[in-house]
Specification:
Elements (H helix, E strand, L loop, with lengths): L1 E5 L2 E5 L7 H9 L17 E4 L2 E4 L12 E3 L6 H12 L9 H14 L5 H7 L11 H8 L24 H6 L14 E7 L5 E5 L2 H8 L3 E3 L26 E2 L5 E7 L1 H6 L7 E5 L6 H5 L14 E8 L55 E9 L11 E6 L4 E5 L4 H12 L6 E5 L15 H11 L3 E4 L2 H7 L6 E9 L5 E13 L5 H11 L8 E10 L13 H19 L3 H8 L19 H23 L5 E13 L9 E7 L5 E5 L8 H13 L6 E5 L16 H24 L6 E5 L2 E6 L2 E5 L5 E7 L18 E13 L4 E12 L6 H20 L24 E7 L21 H13 L10 H9 L2
Parallel strand pairs: 1-5, 6-17, 15-16, 19-20, 23-24, 30-31
Antiparallel strand pairs: 1-2, 3-4, 3-5, 6-10, 7-9, 7-11, 8-10, 12-20, 13-18, 14-15, 14-17, 18-19, 21-29, 22-23, 22-28, 25-26, 26-27, 29-30
Helix pairs in contact: 2-3, 2-5, 10-11, 14-20, 17-18, 19-20
Bound molecules: FE2/S2 (inorganic) cluster (FES) (2 copies).
Length: about 950
């Protein structure tokens, strides 16, 4: 018996002394506010106080707690209440999975130092990772000794109010239920056996004997998949087996599923299983996969090329109001093209096809010409919550509760693998501890479903950190050959890109990346001649999928670097060349789409100009006397289409007002921390004309809420928000009709009593039936033609960012000192949450620039794979630019992905300004920069 004081009360446990304290707290005491993100002391999600000092509960054996005072997030303590309130008031909890650990770490500091300085706060929370917030809001929350929540907005005033997130209290209390936090007590555990080889055949021995010997309930193989043993995310590209069929294509691919009691399942060593491997040569990296004679991963992808994309313009018409006036030649964006014969062959030139050809006869020699090759690595999402959830069998199907970004897609994919109609699968999303695109693809869902059906038992699974990193999708590594020209006035005249993206062993979102990049690659600029070609290439690496930007961040690194090259050649200021070329109202994009509204890049750049001038002056003054530690300023721009590329992208929302006067929004959009639950409710409330506080919420359950589509592509505020707006307007219309009142009437709902007030005065409206109103929205887009011409997105986000860095030239170390961002968000529905998204994107962009480099088999944990900590993310200033989007709800458009895109190129530009060294490979690790400074 181990005895200690737990949250102020005596407690005891018979847990094994070596059982991690985190496990004892969660499983033995039900204190699931202590989260587990790595079990290795890397993430800090499990931080508790032991005798007042913060400790990682995953590393502390329960036996060491004997006689100690242990404090967890569930404790009742005024200081914790102050921190909870402050985290809400500052928007410091987004997904919330790190929040308990953060609050405990902060509490330790504030107990000994009630008025700490910023570095002390950064130091205190330095061991707790947050992937969502960019930390600055957390630091502000810890420093705020007297936090106050913004008051509840009145009717019609919710939009634009910086209110605390509506789903915030459970996150700061530690009661939020993530995928690993709950499951039926009788649930069996499932563990996946994965390939240790990147390419191999395998045969299975006597699994029944193994099952008996190991004390398991079942060992499942592909033969146990009752439906189609394939999943994916795009029609025509479902190519990944739930369980491999004698062949694996990447290290970490699922081979078997072990099901049984937890102890039995966890005791199994893979070597004890009868699997005979025949290791095959593996293709790692794009060059290996494209090499002549390289083995093929899939018969349907000759040359290992999954798909090609492209965009070509011929006649310059960047300011023409009529895209029809443009000539077009070349290859286009076609997700369904799978044969290399359909596309131009690659050129030996760094820029494919780079000699005369496309458009050359139309151009005079450029005054400035830049060309270069860029490389980017795999980037891991590193959400702090590994995949987890449980399934319960139903009469004809299954109900799955798990973390996800895409419940409706999960339903479809799971039903297919079960061989049942979609409606037999119900998906109830748990709270989602970060996603960033990595929880768009199904992972655990089909496995849980198959096991639950097969054993007719509840089944649960919790991925380890290593399993999560080894088996789930990443940002696509890329090799980009880019060329850009400008005339003597610095006006861009031409842009070409040939880019290959490593999509790994399976398709996932490879076609989407190949499709989106050609549209965006030339940047948010007027460029008359554009020719972009992309390929998604299969390798034996981890599948690459969706990650905040779908390839656009990689392309922006190339393009913005070339813009700096052109500015240098022409002797132009880097802000100036961007401002001269910035796309704006009335301009046409390379796909021939005219931007009739909400194109606020010029305003973003104008907002940043004073900061830019100040940064340049600061760097010049500093560098005059500091030869070793050099300051540099960088600038980059971006644009980003909101929603799917030229694909239907609908969302539906439902509002109900019962006869008893209970108002409920049924919102199927999954909030992965970005704040859609709050923002969509703000929109619905104002469209309806009732206070936000009157609104009850039912969130994200495929059996109860309409299909709001995926939480991806920066679409929920724009698309689902517009659907919520339509639902609000529709319900308001019904009420006004019943009251025979005019459009400008005011509504009130007090204790269930509905009142309508117009010029005739107030009158009570009695409902004889429940009122139900649905709103739907599908952004107006058109397919892209063979030249990549059309309207791929209904609207775009625009942004520009400045970075100030300090480089230690003796060591090659880069420290980002400041980021200033200006982003056109259309309308900030909730400015606090909007800024929170921008901060989070910047932090991930910083990681992309300086530290993140996922290597399959080498960096499958959070001590070898580094993400920014509180000490790495600098002061961030944000200018919100509101150029309203007429299609968007109250003028709003997407925010989440755009903020990440310009950060890395701005940092690279700043390093170049500080040192004179141009780096074309990210991350800029110290040894790379040192080598560039001292060896080349
Ligand atoms: S779970 Fe303990 S440090 Fe990550
Ligand atoms: S809020 Fe920190 S990881 Fe999501």
């Amino acid at each position: 018996m181990i005895r200690f004081i737990l949250n102020g009360a005596p407690a005891s446990t018979e847990a094994h002394p070596f059982t991690p304290l985190a496990t004892t707290l969660r499983d033995g005491f039900g204190l699931t506010g202590t989260k587990v993100g790595c079990e290795a002391g890397d993430c800090g999600a499990c931080t508790v106080l032991i005798d007042g000092a913060q400790a990682c509960a995953c590393l502390v054996p329960t036996g060491q707690a004997e006689g100690a005072r242990i404090t967890t997030i569930e404790a009742e303590e005024p200081l914790l209440d102050q921190l909870r309130l402050s985290f809400l008031a500052h928007g410091a909890a987004q997904c919330g999975i790190c929040t308990p650990g953060m609050i405990m770490a902060a509490a330790e500091l504030l107990r000994r130092d009630p008025t700490p300085c910023v570095p002390a706060v950064e130091d205190a929370i330095g061991g707790v990772l947050c992937r969502c917030t960019g930390y600055r809001a957390i630091v502000a929350a810890v420093l705020d000794a007297a936090p106050r929540l913004a008051p509840a907005p009145a009717a019609g005033a919710a939009v634009g109010a910086a209110i605390a997130r509506l789903d915030g209290w459970p996150k700061v209390r530690g009661t939020e239920s993530f995928g690993a936090d709950a499951a039926p007590a009788e649930a069996l555990w499932l563990r996946v056996v994965r390939s240790p080889h990147a390419s191999a055949r395998f045969t299975l021995g006597d699994l029944d004997a193994a099952r008996r010997a190991l004390g398991l309930h079942a060992i499942l193989t592909h033969r146990d998949v009752p439906g189609e043993n394939r999943f994916g995310v795009l029609p025509g590209f479902r190519d990944q087996p739930v369980l491999a069929e004698g062949l694996v294509r990447f290290r970490g691919e699922a081979v078997l599923a072990l099901v049984g009691d937890r102890t039995a399942v966890e005791a199994v060593h893979d070597a004890a299983l009868p699997i005979a491997w025949e290791v095959l040569p593996a293709l790692h990296g794009i060059e290996a996969a494209l090499a002549e004679g390289a083995p093929l991963l899939h018969a349907h992808a000759p040359g290992n090329i999954l798909v090609r994309g492209g965009l070509t313009t011929l006649s310059p018409a960047p300011s023409s109001p009529s895209p029809a006036a443009r000539g077009r030649v070349g290859v286009g964006v076609r997700e369904d093209q799978r044969t290399p014969a359909a596309h131009a062959p690659p050129s030996p030139s760094p820029v494919h096809g780079g000699g005369p050809g496309w458009g050359d006869k139309d151009q005079r020699p450029p005054a400035a010409h830049a060309t270069a090759t860029f490389t980017t690595p795999f980037v891991e999402h590193a959400y702090i919550e590994p995949e987890a959830g449980f399934a319960i069998p139903t009469e004809h199907g299954v109900t799955i509760t798990a973390c996800t970004q895409a419940p409706w897609m999960d339903r479809e994919e799971t039903a297919r693998t079960l061989g049942v109609p979609d409606h037999q699968v119900r998906i109830i999303p748990s709270a989602c501890g970060g996603g960033f695109g990595g929880k768009l693809d199904v992972s655990i869902q089909p496995l849980l479903a198959i096991a639950a059906r097969k054993l007719n038992r509840a089944i649960r699974i919790v991925y380890s950190r290593t399993e999560s990193m080894a088996s789930t999708t990443k940002r696509h590594p890329a090799i980009l050959h880019a060329r850009m020209d400008a005339d003597a006035e610095g006006r861009f005249t031409r842009y070409e890109l040939d880019a290959d993206f490593n999509t790994g062993a399976y398709a996932s979102w490879g076609p989407t990346v190949a499709n989106r990049v050609p549209v965006h690659a030339s940047g948010p600029y007027r460029v008359p001649h554009v020719r972009n070609r992309t390929r998604a290439v299969h390798t034996n690496d981890t599948p690459a999928g969706a990650f905040r930007g779908f390839g656009v961040p990689q392309a922006a690194i190339a393009t913005e670097s070339l813009v700096d090259d052109l500015a240098a050649q022409l002797g132009l200021d880097r802000w100036e060349i961007r401002r001269r070329n910035a796309i704006g109202h009335g301009d046409a994009t390379p796909s021939g789409q005219v931007l009739h509204a909400s194109a606020g890049l010029p305003q973003c750049l104008d907002a940043l100009k004073p900061d830019w001038d100040a940064m340049l002056a600061e760097a010049a003054a500093h560098n005059a006397t500091n030869p070793r530690h050099r300051l540099g300023a960088g600038i980059a721009c971006m644009w980003y289409g909101c929603g799917n590329t030229s694909l239907s992208n609908p969302s539906r929302m439902r509002l109900e007002l019962t006869r008893e006067g209970r108002l409920t929004l049924f919102n199927g959009a999954v909030d992965i921390g970005q704040g859609s639950t709050t923002v969509i409710a703000q929109i619905a409330a104002d469209a309806l004309g009732l206070p936000l506080a009157a609104l009850g919420l039912v969130i994200g359950d495929t059996a109860r809420t309409p299909d709001a589509g995926k939480t991806s592509a920066s679409r929920q505020t724009f698309v689902s928000g517009r659907a919520a707006y339509e639902a609000g307007r529709a319900l308001r219309h019904r009420i006004l009709q019943l009251a025979n009142a005019g459009e400008d009437a005011r509504l009130a709902l007090d204790d269930g009593a509905l009142t309508v007030t117009d010029r005739a005065g107030p009158r009570r409206v009695t409902l004889h039936e429940d009122l139900v109103a649905e709103g739907a929205y599908d952004p107006p887009t058109t397919p892209l033609d063979a030249d990549g011409q059309g309207i791929p997105y209904a609207t775009y986000g625009f942004a520009a960012q400045l970075a100030l860095v300090r480089v230690d030239t003796a060591l090659g170390l880069t420290k980002v000192l400041r980021i200033v961002a200006a982003q056109d968000v259309g309308r900030a529905i909730n400015p606090m949450l909007t800024i929170g998204q921008i901060h989070g994107g910047i932090a991930q962009g910083l990681g992309l620039a300086l530290m993140e480099d996922f290597r399959p088999g080498l960096t499958e944990n959070l001590h070898d794979y580094l993400i920014p900590t509180a000490g790495d993310v600098p002061d961030i200033r944000v200018h919100l630019i509101e150029d309203p989007e007429p299609e968007g709800p109250f003028g709003a458009k997407g925010v989440g992905e755009p903020a990440l895109v310009p950060t890395a190129p701005a940092i690279l530009g700043a390093i170049r300004h500080a040192t004179g060294v141009t780096l074309r490979q990210v991350p800029v690790l110290p040894h790379r920069l040192w080598e560039a400074l001292h060896v080349r």
